[in-house]
Amino acid sequence: MHLRRSGHAFHTAGRVFVDEESTVMAKPFESRIQDLVYNVDVGIGLRLIKLCLYALFVLIVMLLFTAMQFKGLKDAEAMDYAQLGRNLALQKKLVTQCVRPASMWYLIENRRYDDSMIMRHPDILNAPLYPALLATGFKLFKTPFPDESSARNFPAEKWVILPFNHFFSILTGILVFLLGCKLFDRRVAWLGMTSYYLSYTVWFDSISGLGISVLTFLTTLAIYMLVIAAGRAREEKARLRSWIVPFVVAALCCIAAFLTRYAAAALVPAFALFIVLSFGKKGWVWALVFAGVFVAGILPWLARNVIVSGGLLGLAPYHALYDSILFSGDSFYRTLAPVFSFKGVFNAIRTKWMLGFASFYKTDLLSIGDGILICLFITAFFYHFVRERVHLLRWSIALGIVLMGCIGAVYGKQTIRLLNIFWPVVLLYGLAFFFLMLDRLQLRIRILNYGLIGAIMLLTALPLIFAMLPPRGGSPYPPYFPPYIMHVCNFLEPGELLCSDMPWATAWYGKRNTLQLPMTIDEFYTINDYNKRVSGIYFTDITRNKPYVRDLFKGPEQTWFPILEGRIPADFPLTQGFPIGNMMNQLFLTDRARWAE
Predict the structure, then answer these.
(1) 164 vs 211: CA distance, rounded Å
(2) Beta pairing, strands 95-96 & 534-539
(3) In this structure, is the dihedral angle defined by the CA atoms of residues 335, 337, 340 and 345, taken in order, positive or negative?
């Protein structure tokens, strides 16, 4: 008898004998349906359904908050970043259309200025990474920048800036879950991620356009990588290659964080402390390596600043003089030739720091995130966690918070706001301590446990809930209303110079190079006569709402007061104009009746 083998079957005279031990027969249709139902009911299908529902829940929260609270950019700094990103996308150079007299002074003092720079003014105030990311988004999505006819719909904000920041907020929530699993357990991780997504602070920072979402993501990723590296480095017979990659990623995140906001330099000492405490006997060596990698990473940008402006960080360190006893409000940036001495600067910064740090301790420290969990985080310092990494990490986070508070005390509210970058770690520690106390209560009735967990989640989410209730977030007008801004700016040609008390807004919405309103009319004459002729001036509520006697009539704005009242000096070059706004609270002046043309 002829016998032929093929695979696992033996063919003989038209008959087939199957090797049953090595061949799996196809399941009947009914069995496959049962398996599918099982997976949907209790298997991987159920997990996928829960994950999709959770993602849908986060998406709904994000969209509802955005729809109810976002009516346009409200922060001057956000508009400044946006116009820098657009200029970088279109001109491939980090130039600004928001020209500050103090910036002109700084470049002149360091012999880096010529007359043409007022129209292609280098930015010497801001860190570059966030504008670069925005520029990438503008180019990737080919974002249009509308003219006056479509001013009410500004797509760059709705379709690039907002989604970009929301994307990083969502990524940070995933990192919160991973970090919670690494430090504590899945219970803390899941509730930590949920608390993060239910946090008013998270979404408020996300719609601000300030790039805080990017900085929070970089900080959380750096912490997660350092925790991984520390865990592997302390293992017996640990090899360098097993933990060097997360170590380097953490250092790169710190570099990126610094290039997003200079104040993020406070992270380096905090993370170096964690490395010293958790990397064993040679921890201090690796802390120095970490700092060395950070310095090497930021050197190219520091070199660019020296070449362009003559200083390592350009004009940024001088922001400490903003709203100080030497320069009230924004008068420093509006002064073409600021006069100060070392002793005066020292006294001004010392006074500002003392007052600012007192405010930080009394209010800003407790406002990190959304209230209740920061209190639990502080209380957790009186408890010794069993896991060494958990115990040591909180001290480095505390150092980072204190250093950021010290920097913010000098550099103002926008820097103090960066304390929110520690919120993901703060809420994890707060929840971990909450569950520690809950477990020690040993409540035998499960519904009581669920009730207390629900209560802590509700307390965390209350600010978000209140924000979604009526009344909704208001418009940024006054003073920011894109149709008015574009209407004014369109009277000027792209090569002409505008002057305004809100140059960041006219630069972003109007796409015109704008000189920030000088402190005195004499400084205006100096710039107009010797640097670049000013073709229009735009006064808004920012100036007109200032105190009458203290600022306008007898104060630092007194040289502008006659113009605001309609008494234009005979030698003033801009004599034609009209009021703007529902209550005629804004004023535009130019050199001729351009609207007749």
Answers:
(1) 9
(2) unpaired
(3) positive
* pLDDT value of position 522: 95
431 contacts 191 by C-beta, under 8 angstroms = yes
Provide the residue type at 497 as one letter: L
CB atoms under 10 Å from CB of 448, counted, come to 12
> Are 197 and 189 in contact, with CB atoms under 8 Å apart?
no
Q: Which of 371, 417, 151 is nearest to 263 (CA)?
A: 417
Element (H, E) at 500: strand 497-500
Burial class from Cβ neighbours inside 10 Å (0-12, 13-18, 19+) for residue 422 reads buried
In three-state secondary structure terms, 83 is helix
- Asked whether residue 556 carries a pLDDT value surpassing 90, the answer given is no
Confirm if 369 and 201 have CB atoms less than 8 A apart: yes
* pLDDT band of 12, cuts 50, 70, 90: very low
Burial 340-369, CB ≥16 within 10 A → b, else e:
eeeeeeeebbeebbeebbebbeeebbeebb
Helix (H) or strand (E) holding 588: strand 586-590
Q: Which residues pair with 578 in a beta bridge?
A: 588
CB 222 within 8 A of CB 253: yes
Domain residue limits, the chain:
4-69, 76-152, 482-596
State the DSSP H helix or E strand holding residue 82, giving kind and residue range, or none if neither. helix 76-91
pLDDT tens by residue, 188-231: 999 999 999 999 999 999 999 999 999 999 999 999 999 999 99
Q: How far apart are CA 437 and CA 149, in angstroms?
A: 60
Cα–Cα distances (Å) from 217 to 170, 369, 380, 447, 490, in that order, read: 9, 15, 24, 35, 39
Residue 97 burial by Cβ neighbours in a 10 Å radius (0-12, 13-18, 19+): buried
Q: How many CB atoms lie within 10 A of CB 426?
A: 22
Residue 26 DSSP label: P
**CA pair distance 217, 211, nearest whole angstrom:** 10
Per-residue model confidence (pLDDT) at position 36: 60
Cβ partners under 8 Å of residue 331, min gap 6: 519, 556
100-149 residue pLDDT tens: 999 999 999 998 877 768 999 999 999 999 999 999 999 999 888 876 54
What is the 8-class DSSP label of residue 25?
P
In this structure, are residues 119 and 533 in contact, taking their beta carbons and an 8 Å threshold?
Answer: no
- Quick check: 473 and 70 in contact, CB under 8 A? yes
Strands 4-6 and 9-12: antiparallel
Residues facing 538 on adjacent strands: 500, 588
Q: Show Cβ contacts of residue 551 under 8 Å, excluding neighbours closer than 6 positions.
A: 557
CB atoms within 10 A of CB 522: 10
Tell me the residue length of the chain. Answer: 597
DSSP designation for 499: E
Q: How far apart are CA 259 and CA 257, in angstroms?
A: 5
Q: What's this model's pTM, rounded to 2 decimal places? A: 0.91
Q: Which residues pair with 122 in a beta bridge?
A: 95
How many other CB atoms sit within 10 Å of the CB of residue 463?
Answer: 17
Question: Who wins on pLDDT, 148 or 170?
Answer: 170
